[in-house]
From TrEMBL:
<keyword id="KW-0863">Zinc-finger</keyword>
<dbReference type="InterPro" id="IPR035937">
    <property type="entry name" value="FPG_N"/>
</dbReference>
<dbReference type="InterPro" id="IPR010663">
    <property type="entry name" value="Znf_FPG/IleRS"/>
</dbReference>
<feature type="binding site">
    <location>
        <position position="103"/>
    </location>
    <ligand>
        <name>DNA</name>
    </ligand>
</feature>
<feature type="active site" description="Proton donor; for delta-elimination activity">
    <location>
        <position position="286"/>
    </location>
</feature>
<feature type="domain" description="FPG-type">
    <location>
        <begin position="260"/>
        <end position="296"/>
    </location>
</feature>
<dbReference type="InterPro" id="IPR012319">
    <property type="entry name" value="FPG_cat"/>
</dbReference>
<feature type="active site" description="Proton donor; for beta-elimination activity">
    <location>
        <position position="58"/>
    </location>
</feature>
<dbReference type="Pfam" id="PF01149">
    <property type="entry name" value="Fapy_DNA_glyco"/>
</dbReference>
<comment type="similarity">
    <text>Belongs to the FPG family.</text>
</comment>
<comment type="function">
    <text>Involved in base excision repair of DNA damaged by oxidation or by mutagenic agents. Acts as DNA glycosylase that recognizes and removes damaged bases. Has a preference for oxidized purines, such as 7,8-dihydro-8-oxoguanine (8-oxoG). Has AP (apurinic/apyrimidinic) lyase activity and introduces nicks in the DNA strand. Cleaves the DNA backbone by beta-delta elimination to generate a single-strand break at the site of the removed base with both 3'- and 5'-phosphates.</text>
</comment>
<dbReference type="GO" id="GO:0008270">
    <property type="term" value="F:zinc ion binding"/>
</dbReference>
<keyword id="KW-0862">Zinc</keyword>
<comment type="subunit">
    <text>Monomer.</text>
</comment>
<feature type="active site" description="Schiff-base intermediate with DNA">
    <location>
        <position position="2"/>
    </location>
</feature>
<feature type="active site" description="Proton donor">
    <location>
        <position position="3"/>
    </location>
</feature>
<keyword id="KW-0238">DNA-binding</keyword>
């Protein structure tokens, strides 16, 4: 499943073509993906202009001139392919994304803001992705978004906020960070990396780093900074390049070459002065990678 940096690189790759474009025609080649398309999906999209393309957590959001929002999720294997003057694929994926036409489930025929013709093709071999339409005024209360926590890239994520969110929590620090009701969009890879940078054990109780009455502590302040830092570096690198996740221009993301702990079981810790070895444990059926020596 692509994590937040992968989805953000897809958004940035699609935006130059899709923002301001009019959907001249839509090809919907099957009735469903993970979920059925809305019954009037094609009719509500054709003739509409895409006024903005944004991201909330791991969802892509295309605001339409009709007042609807096209909500898109990539699932496990979903990708977009842009056919303009040069064909390219937005995202951050290590293996080549599918171009098999039998998996081209949705095709947007666009007249771009520049006046050129373009096709944006959604291809999804496993069909775990989905698309739906939600009126903009109902978006925040929609079941997909109603319980999502704060965005980790915004200024709202700081030491004080983490102290408030973690206060009294006996669950592990990693579980708290992966709780989408607290912080939206954080995934396994970048949580492991941020905890290593902060020197905090993933098994430590979340409440143990919270300050009294929601006050920031040195640990919550450092963790908030390292979360933002890790995500921003991954976005700049084009994503983690894991498994079958490419960028808008079809190139690969290279953040995985900067992994300090993720998927490095048995390797020496990269923390300056640390003589520890990266270990792997399982938490909530997910692999956790960390250094038992320097992460406390």
């Amino acid at each position: 499943m692509p994590e937040l940096p992968e989805v953000e690189t897809v958004r940035r790759g699609l935006a130059p073509t899709m923002e301001g474009a009019r959907i001249v025609r839509l090809d919907q080649n099957r009735p469903d993906l993970r979920f059925p398309f809305p019954a009037d999906f094609k009719a509500r999209l054709e003739g509409r202009t895409i006024t903005a393309l944004s991201r909330r957590s791991k969802y892509l959001l295309a605001d339409l001139s009709s007042g609807d929002v096209l909500v898109m999720h990539l699932g496990m294997s979903g990708s977009f392919r842009i056919e303009e003057e040069v064909e390219h694929t937005p995202g951050a994926f290590a293996l080549a994304r599918s171009k098999d036409p039998k998996h081209d489930h949705v095709v947007f025929h666009l007249k771009t803001a520049k006046g050129s013709d373009a096709r944006v093709i959604y291809n999804d071999p496993r069909r775990f992705g989905f698309m739906t339409l939600v009126p903009r005024p109902q978006l925040s209360s929609h079941p997909l978004f109603a319980n999502l926590g704060l965005e980790p890239l915004g200024n709202e994520l700081n030491g004080e906020t983490l102290s408030r969110l973690f206060a009294g929590k006996t669950t592990s620090l990693k579980a708290a960070l992966l709780n989408q009701k607290l912080i939206a969009g954080l995934g396994n890879i970048y949580v492991c990396e941020a905890l290593w940078r902060t020197g905090l054990s993933p098994t430590r109780q979340a409440g143990s780093i919270a300050g009294k009455s929601g006050k920031a502590t040195a640990k919550t302040t450092a963790l908030a900074g390292h979360i933002r830092e890790t995500l921003k570096e991954a976005i700049e690198a084009g994503g983690s390049s894991l498994r079958d996740h490419t960028q808008a221009d079809g190139s690969l993301g290279y953040f995985q070459h900067n992994f300090a702990v993720y998927d490095r079981e048995g390797a020496p810790c990269r923390q300056a002065g640390c003589t520890g070895t990266i270990a792997r444990i399982v938490q909530s059926n997910r692999s956790t990678f960390y250094c038992p020596k320097c992460q406390r």
